[in-house]
């Protein structure tokens, strides 16, 4: 089952029954009839495959499944914002936001374009906001539409984690952890963590989404990935995220084998050659700037801005460029004799590597276990 297949009013009814202890009181709370609440609870139980309540003369007693689901449903309902919203409407707006057009959303979901148009239009009426503007032959989400789409993605993520909690309660093996991997983490930390995790939980799948910070922070905020691993940013710029430091990384300077500086260099020599670096504003670029600020003098030329380690490697092999990276990122190339580690960055130059999650995120047991594997791998690297 997918999280966007729930009936939103049935979810609200379940929360109300847990809080009120009876169908009749819950029905008044959510403005449904008692039969509708009873049928809604029965449908939810059929969907998730476990009973939610024990029925008795004194009312409805919530079971473990209901107690696990309730806090996640409450968060999802707050994000959705209205019991008038339907799962089909949620699915339509999220698909439109992701695809950028009704045609692309229809192709991605298999839902006919007229149905998507109607669902998004009805959703706008339900929440009292215009969600889409026409732009020539295309469409664009309004500010309200963008904000609602983000909240709906987070609601779906919360419900997905609720389903994983229930699957664990049923004793089912499986699940999936969604990890955003910035360039530094892909060389050693993340592979080591995955190996550790899979050794104890081989039934759980791992999805790794590669990208730079700017490419991953949006999906993290929207609930499309669970966590992100890489160089941490200024906390003031990520107040809605929780950043967990793992280790300190001290970058080193790389060049091709046989580079003129491979046998030794000083500050002036470092300025004689072109550099390949990630874009302005990234932690590594700021470290490079701080390195030369300590050394004094002008910054050397940076004719190539690039965050791809694979591309940087090929450029280094074929020219007299220099770069600044973690040793682990190019260790295989150094050991193979393609590149040379010509020395650690001079001065107190280091960056904090860590794990970022949403501030209000409540991980499942599987997600907590993966975080523990990441922390264990980081401790081993630090030692």
Sum this structure up briefly.
By secondary structure, this protein is an alpha/beta fold. It has helices at residues 8-20, 23-30, 34-48, 64-80, 87-99, 102-109, 113-127, 143-169, 183-187, 189-200, 213-221, 267-270, 283-295, 309-317, 327-335, 365-382, and strands at 53-56, 59-62, 132-135, 138-141, 176-181, 205-210, 227-231, 241-249, 252-256, 275-277, 304-305, 322-325, 339-344, 351-358.
Structural class: alpha/beta
Percentage of residues in DSSP E strands: 15-25%
Using the coordinates above, name the CATH class of the largest domain. Mainly Alpha
| CATH architectural group of the largest domain | Orthogonal Bundle
End-to-end gap: 43 Å
Placed side by side, the strands forming the largest sheet appear as: 6-5-7-14-8
Number of helices: 16
Shape: elongated
CATH topology of the largest domain: Arc Repressor Mutant, subunit A
Radius of gyration: 26 Å
Which blocks of ≥5 consecutive residues have pLDDT under 50?
none
Number of strands: 14
- Averaged pLDDT: 93
Strand count, sense and barrel status of the largest sheet are: 5 strands, mixed
Helix content: 40-55%
SSE string, helix = H, strand = E?
HHHEEHHHHEEHEHHEHEEEHEHEHEHEEH
Classified in CATH, the superfamily of the largest domain is Winged helix-like DNA-binding domain superfamily/Winged helix DNA-binding domain
